[in-house]
Queue: 4 jobs
Job 1
Amino acid sequence: MRQFRHVTAQHLFQMREYDARAIARHYRQRPFQVIGRAFTIVWSFLGLIVGFQWDQWRNASEIEIYKRATQLREILTRLGPTFIKVGQALSTRPDLIRKDFLEELIKLQDQLPPFPTPTAFRIIETELDRTVEEAYSEISPLPIAAASLGQVYKARLHTGEPVAVKVQRPNLLPTLTLDLFLMRWAAGWIAPILPLNLGHDLSLIVDEFGTKLFEEVDYLHEGRNAETFAANFQGEPQVKVPSIYWRYSNRCVLTLEWIDGCKLTDLERVRQANLDENDLIEVGVTSGLQQLLEHGFFHADPHPGNLFAMADGRMAYIDFGMMDQLEQHTKETLVDSVVHLINKEYGALAQDFVKLGFLTPDTDIEPIIPALETVFDKAVGESVGDFNFKSITDQFSELVYEYPFRVPAKFALIIRSLVTQEGLALSLNPNFKIVEVAYPFVARRLLTEESPAFRRRLLEILFKDGKFQWQRLESLISMARTRDSLDLLPAAQLGLQYLLSPEGQFLRYQLIHALTEDDRLHTEEVQRIWMLVKDDIQPEHVFNAAWGALTEFSAERAASLIPAVTSIVSPSSAPSETK
């Protein structure tokens, strides 16, 4: 029996993928180990809670209360990597956490106690099957940073390149697996007592977290993530991804390009480098939106310890352990939800929540629609700049108590990523509003993206109840060119090709009708839109775009337009839209 248990433990701690059943089987045979760890966790936080209550009873001074922040950081550090991850997430929310506590929790990002360098060097030699001297011409005697799962040394290859060497902490899996088992066990007990279905997917969320943690402790997986991320952003000069040196990397050691920069939260160094905080915010938020809406491959742990500002204004991502992938239909539904939110089409938005898994398919959405209108109406009203992700999530959380919403496991990471990015931006600029960057990004994508899916979504915005929404087009163009010039010619050429095609017959009618509806020519609206775009459009470019569109069509296809034009002149014979 002892031999069986030993083999089971050895197998568990060499697992490469998270397996909740295997972990449960292992720890059910070790009740004393589980009880001991649970007691340690409860006792640690119980002492902190009692301390807080005691401070209130005796009206303790701010200096004494500040000691509780240090106590919290020390508790999380002592409890290990799982709880350090929780502290890291909290450290990115200056709008939720008191400044004194925030300053302590930020230390969890890269100021954790290191493990001994001789141990780290032994891991390097075991993993790379060569001595440290054979791998690197020089290496720092002490780590330059220590994080929850490993620590980093600065080194130089024999070929001269400066590199960062990440070395994983020894014996990580015993602690991670035990904490995950306890979290999953606690989720099973807590879920039934939560209001409605708040705990519906609690165990699945723990499983998602466990899966990502196991991926994060495999540095080969992290290296592959980094290369995928770099490929996605190869056309974005503002985003820097370090190169991976595979010859000097393995499951517990990762050698990557050295990045010279400063943490985004180090405002003094950011200003010394003459970098604009708002520009850095825009790069960070825009790259985050690209990850979610374009690539579908997103960084799920973008805390300040993983993001650096470089002297040339670029933003560098340096940690790719916790990533996730969105399916194509999920990306499209997310864009749909933005479109429906802009249109204030809350019935369609409720259907989007069903598609995304926040509501089950058999849910009666009719009573939910007015509630969604109450929550979101102000967010997309006249004061768009007052929108922020936290305010919406706070209001939305109230709906969860009244209606059968649930948070799908995958979206727990997406929400964490969005909240973390907004928190990071708030640390740079307390007055930051995420919509001031996000809305122009979505507008630009809708106006310039050439794919049929985005073209369809743009038409959904511009036409409502059969009428062309001039104000929406003005708003989209204004927002899309908030910071930079806007090149609409590629989209205009594609749109002209679509208008001249058989599929564009209904749109041709709608467009002419929009120009002449209410028995008048809408010249004022056209003039306002022209004033918005005229500085970005050169006459010769317009001619080239039009010529390019026209050359796509044969004489036969051009002749086929004549009946359509006739139908436009005679409104009574307007074509019906086909779906």
Note: The CA atoms of residues 347 and 369 lie 6 Å apart.
Job 2
Amino acid sequence: MAKNIEPKLKKIGDYLKLDEDTKFIIPEYQRAYSWNVDNCDKLWQDIIDYADSGNKDRYFFGTIIINCEKNDTEFGLIDGQQRTTTFLLLLKALLVRINIAINRIPNDDDSASLCRGLQERRRRIMGILYKAESEDISDKPDVTKDAEICSRDIILETFSINERYRDELKIILQANDFKTAENKVIKIKYKQKDNRYTNFFRNYKFFYEKIQDLSDSQLNNVTKTITESCEVIEIKSWQIDQAITMFNSLNSDGLPLYDSDIISAKLYQEAGKQGVKKQFAKLWEQLDACINELEGINIADINSILMQYMYYKRTVNKETVRDTGAINVTTPGLRRYFTEDKKSLLTNPIEVCSDLIKLAKIWKEVSDYPSIKVLLKFNENSKLFLASYFFGLDEANISETVINPIVECLLRLFAVLELVDIGYSSNKFKTFLFGEEIKFVDQNVTADVITSDFTNHIRTYWEKDYILSLLNDYNGNALVYLNEYLFAKENGNSFILGTKYDIEHIMPYSGGNLQEIRKDAEISSEDEFKSYVNKLGNKIILEEKINRAIGNEWFRTKVSTKLLNKTGYIDSEYPIARALVSNYQSTNKPYWKKGDIIQATDKASDRIAKFIFG
């Protein structure tokens, strides 16, 4: 006979204190650890405010729902994994700080009571985190004994197929001190400062630094408050469906689930029904690794990949065309589409996962193409339509030659969108693109046909002279990248958009020499200066290192070889900077004047307009 639901009001310390053979489990279908520093800051402030208030009532931290369906030694966290994980990180940060405090407290009668209190807190936390017996824990931190205790298995294990950093919590909890954990945790590629760390370590570091601001007495009080005066309602269920139903009814304190969380959970459940759970989990892990790389270079995350897949499926299945033949641009939300409108798609978990992997791999393959890098400087919606085209490609034969005709079609239209005073939702953009997407997914339609469609569409709705006037007044940045790309093509130069670059103002936007530079440029007033400094012809792409070294110097310095330890345009790999060096370097005291900006803007405008109109 199945057990009934078992709710209990528990102190945090008692909730986390498990029996010897018991541990928390994060199921395969759960989301990854997603709490960030803002969530931790709110939690910390709530605890501090409560500890300072002297309130004798217990502080309530919500409901935890646990699935005990397998057995009573595995507590599957249905609701509460974010809070449970965070409390473990907080307790570890408190323990490390308590160890430091115990070692520095003087050995005298005045400090004896506080020292005993901290020793008691130390035993309590080590008993929770490592199931250590009180008699095995020394009064004062002992490096050897503590290292042995900390190396024990942790009380929470994740099986989530969405968690890419499964060992992070273990690394932090098993490290004897903060520095050891910092040295061992993952550093994410392409990220800087604290962003290079996972949520696990960022949150642990946040607590560790906040605790540093506490006095030893406050440290003792706050630790006792957390373990003895803060409570949760722990609800145990021995039926998974019942537990999930309660979660849907009661969840209010956790983070809202992303659409991808719901979709991956349903795919995983379906894979289980079909007996392919292991195969699916392996594929999803492969997908997650691909997505991780794409996130690192700001191309896509799992939700955007799913959105692209939805666009593709809707187009292939002709869901974007009404019975009358008119284009239907109304798009459902991800969750609704996959779990309500077209839930039959989720009955093929292996196929869906394989399709998503293919798309992610293609994005990774093309991410360094210059045309792709320039396109991604424009409206994000371009990815949705390009992705549909990708699905029809053979992964083994992808090249710039293959994809550039379609990428440049999108570049042309989104360059117009960047200029004109109408939005993406206009039928001149969104409706047209939905119509063309039907041809993107049809492998019988050639790139020449699609290119012709874009050319005819642009020429039908916009006049070239009008676009030229908009280009002459343009003061944004997206078209600076396009101009550089087109200039390189025009002159047979290579164009590689590196990882660290800036938009450089040839005539500086600011700086100590501005008055003199403005005078050299034959610009008489500040208003006139403002009207010229952001024009297309005054902006180029430049390596960050070069720009930071010489960005506000005179033009003659920028195009010269060196200025002491600074570097100029001559060391740039970008084509327009190199062309400026070639044109002006041999000139005696070259100036960059108003007329030069006008001429460069006219050339850039003409170049872009010709590209737009085909």
Note: The chain has a mean pLDDT of 91.
Job 3
Amino acid sequence: MSKEKISSGAEKAESLTNKKSTAKKPAKTTAKKSTKATAKKPVKNTKNKNVKHAKREKVLTEKQLAKKKAREQKKLQAAKIRAEKKQKRLEKRLEHKQKRLDAIAAFKERAAERREKRRERRDMLKHETKEARLKRIREEREAKMEARIAKREARISEKQAKREHALKVRAEKRADKAERQHAPGMGGWLAAVISLGVTTLALGTMLTFGWLNYNGMEADMADVHTQSLYELNSIVDNLDTNLAKARVSNSANEQVRLFSDIAIESEMAEVVLERMPIESNLTLNMTGFVNKMADSAQGMLFTVANGGELSDSQKATISYMYETNLEMKRILNEITSNSSAKDMINAMKGRQSNLSTSFGDLENNAIETPKEIHDGPFSDSIKKVTAKNLENLEEINATRAEELAKEYFESYKPTDVRCTGETIAEQLECYNLTIKTDDGEMMAQLSKKGGKVVMFNSYKACNDHNFSVERCIDIAQDFLSDLGYDNMKAVWTSENGTTCNLNFAYEQDGVVFYPDMIKVKVCEQRGIVTGLEGISYVLNHVERTAGSATISKSEAESKLASGFEVEGSRLTVIPGNDGEVLAYEFYGTYEGNTYYIYVDAKTGNEAEVFTVIGTKQGKALM
């Protein structure tokens, strides 16, 4: 076999084999490639898509997060605002609630204070004596009246200041106008020379006499006093109207109103009188009359307000006040009509004028003030001198004062006695003591010299009438004896239903010494002494003789007015202008009114006369 044939056959086989393998190989490769392509291509596409999708998702998420964050921030802000609003509403509600609670608490506190004040006032009124009540009412009215007068004077001063300011402004305007109208030249020089001459003349007059300002001040003061005169005239007119009504009024409510007005107007008249440029001796009786009229009106007011009826003496007092005030009104109307500014200026300078003459006539011819007593003769007019009886006594200290107080008030069973201070009353130095008992608290004053009881007061309720006046007198005398005050005689009683007020005077050899007086208050429910005021006795009492009477009692009685019915008499020592006077005391009635008449036991002259008002509340003990 040829080589070529072998070669060709091998070659054929080889070629077939190569073809086969070539045919197979490309298929394998294609398959691999297609597989690879198929496998890789989707992976490649998926990866790209995931990347893009991931990027897209990432972008959207950031926006959403931003929006979500914004929404959450907005929600938080809204929640915060809602929380703040809620907190504010809550705080506001709490504030309103607190205010309401504070208002309720304040209201309760004010209500408690009002209740406490009412309770204190009830206690005060329950234990307050008639004299203290009238004094308190008078002081309250005086304070109101003073405030009213001060307000009116301030208004007048303000009006006067405005007028002076207006005059000053007007003068400045005139001066400015004259300056603006000033022209240069000869006329201007002439005007300047004339103005200078006038100014020099006025200045010289002012420097020499000072009449311009002084004259203006006098005129202003005269205007003020003239207004006071008109005001006094108006008050007296009102008093005339009210007194006329009081004479015929029979209604308790109307009487309370009338007596209140009379008391207030009388006090106002007294204040206006004090401002008048008239010498005091020309208004002494008038001032005394309006003062007594105020006191009488207050006494009648007290009687009516407590359900009582006016006595015949009080009705007679109203008639007297009406008639006297009517005459006073007539003369004041004439004074007001006829007085001029010149009269007022002369009165201000102390010169004789129609004004002073008219007031003198009013003082001497129209007014005579009656002396009245509410709570016993000489109870308000004791002349107080140096405590001669205590001068030689030993001065005690505070500890000794406490020991003496325990002894004096042993029957009250004191649990604690304490000295709270010192005071000086009517030339008398005293220790102030507080005494505590199981039944309440008491106060007392003991003199430094001798340790004498000067004052004593306790706050104990007295609502029932268990003890008679006679028994109260015995209780008071025993109490005075325990304090060392012997030979005391009851000279006057005043009873209000639950409390008995007694006046005791020192008695020696059958003679009653009115200057040596002690006032005692006895509770008619408990039968104990609840008050004492003995400063008149402590200051005036000293061992002395009354002297001898020159005339007999029958001779003194013959000096009395005819028609005076004597119900009792005794020999007494009374305070006089120049010392003590030995006098016969006659107690009785005249034309329905009760009087105390004192006749000097040495000269036979009438020494003193009192008319009694409120006879149902008080009586003398002979």
Note: The chain has 13 helices and 14 strands.
Job 4
Amino acid sequence: MSSGKSKFNHKFRNAKITTQMIIMFIVAVMLPMFVAGGALITTNITSLTEYHRNLVQSNNDRVRSILYEITSQIHNISGDIAYDKELIDMLSQDYVSEDEFKATFANYDTMDYFITNYTGIDDIRIYIDKKNVPNYKCFYKVTTENRYELWYKEASTQFSVFWESVYLTDSFGNSSWTLALVRRITLNDDSVAVLVMSISDNYLKNRIETTDYSTILSMNDREVFYSSNRDDYGKSELVDIIDPTQLFFTYIGNLAYHGNEYMASISTLKMASSPSSIYVTTISNTAYDNIKTVTYMTLIILLLAIILPGILMGFFIRFFTRQINDLRYEMNKASNENYDLSGFDGSYELNMAYSDLQLMVEKIKDQDEKMYNGKITEQILMNEQQKMEFQMLASQINPHFLYNTLETIRMKAITAGDRETATAIQLLGRSMRYVLDNTGTQYTTIAKEISHIETYLQIQKLRFGDRVNYEFKVDDGLDPDEILILPLLLQPIVENAILHGLEEVESGGMILFHVHRSGDGEDVRIDITDNGCGMDPLELKKMQENLDLGNIDKRYGIGLYNINQRIKLCYGQQYGLTIESIQGKGTTVSATIKIMRKEEKAENDGGDRSGE
């Protein structure tokens, strides 16, 4: 073995340097990279697979928790309905006509209450097997088709509560699969009443759906009642690996779904106080794609780590070999004397170079003095400086971004069932749009100003409830869409009426907004009246005296002074505000302006309506 090793070393040392470098690259770079890369890819695949398995199982647990929450809630509600003595007594009666049945249940709204206040409930139905029972409100007469449906048969023969995937048709004729709680209502006679409470499909979608996961829900080994893919509804063998014989079936691994392989987690949800079970199937839409992407990226990086050094090594070998050969050629030309050197034992190229070096040494010594006479050239480097200018860009909030943001928040409130918040946001957006649209404008119409005031009052109505009520009145002969007014003129008056006039009013507060002609009919007067506390004569006199002086009591602020000055500057000194008040009965603030119509202003401005 020692002899073989020595022979190999001798061959390696005396091989061409190109061969030596290639061997060293293979042994020192390629083999370790392949081994390390293979181990890295295997480790990444294992780690990512375990990571996505945990994620898909976690999402499955989340869906199962949501289902348990809503089904438990519906189960409790069903008990309230099924044991409602008033309902049982009414259902146990015999009715001589459908009109008598309708009259009996006309004021019974328990089911309507639950449907309205619990977003998870899509529909509540009670099927009654009695004569003269019409389809009325939440009550349905049992049909021949119902009698042959499995859920009705089971409910008719047992008293236990159970869950079922049912195919229901609503009042509009739309049919769909849904998860429903079914239980028999025990009546005082031998007739049968079956309660069916279905879960809202939109509620499940909003609570369950995520971008990265698809969900399939099926009842026992029957039809699918919910799926991220609408085409799956009603299919009974979509997930064929479920074993219904197992009490608590669980599975995590590969799943064939619509012709593709996915990572999936399946678990069983045992319903509370019911023998029914739901199979929750969670499918990761991105797990294997992510694993493949990371694997491919790792493989590409590994190949680049091998190929790029290989290319660089190839260029280096060619360059190094060429340099040595050039050196040998030049040294052979320059050699003309023989010198006694110590010897050299190396690779093929270096041995040849050393032989040439022996011939060149003395020649180089003879030429040392001549080399000092060489001309040294200097190169002057020119550096240019470039001046860079930085400009500060002032960004301005786009009002459309604000409106779109408010609309997004409003839609989320609607989705969450918070209609009051959605209405408040809509009113706020409408008010802000009016303010922004009229900032800097010269005139608007009385109709638009009234619309803005109504929006403002609606917002205050949401805030104060019955403390704030309002009424708008425009006399006949006045067209508010044609008469112009200064924008944002009247809101401060209405605001004062609410904040100060109705300050002590706890309910029944009223703001009356009345637009009518004044004087000889060429002026319009706008009265804003509240039924609040009013002012005593001394306080009213002080308000009237200081209306033109800007020294108004802080109780009403300086807003009225500003409005009065705007009116006088625009329409003339004969126009402006007046205040009337009776202590304990209320206050009226009147704004008198000159009637100016769109056509008149267009003629005065030479046809330019930009001010509107």
Note: The first strand starts at residue 121 and ends at 128.
